[in-house]
Amino acid sequence: MVKPKPYRFVVRLPVDMKNQIHDAARSYRRSMNSEIVARLSDSFTGLPTVRDGDAAPINPRLERMLSPELSEQECELLTAFRKLTAERQAALVKLLR
User: Three-class SS of residue 45?
Assistant: First the structure.
């Protein structure tokens, strides 16, 4: 059986981020590519399955990093809200107004 070639993807990184990736890769004794793949893979860990019509879920840990002003309870509410269908989201927003 022939192993499929990995997908090649070019991305532009800020110099500071490239340096952080380089330093992290060195400390874990792996390539920068392996470091990036490992970190991306970790960010998807524990994500719920996306149903048709649902918004893409966000990992709760990543959500807190992107919205540090939100409390843990607010992040839980946001995660639960995103799991609702669009119709239920609209009904909840209407109820809360």
Answer: coil
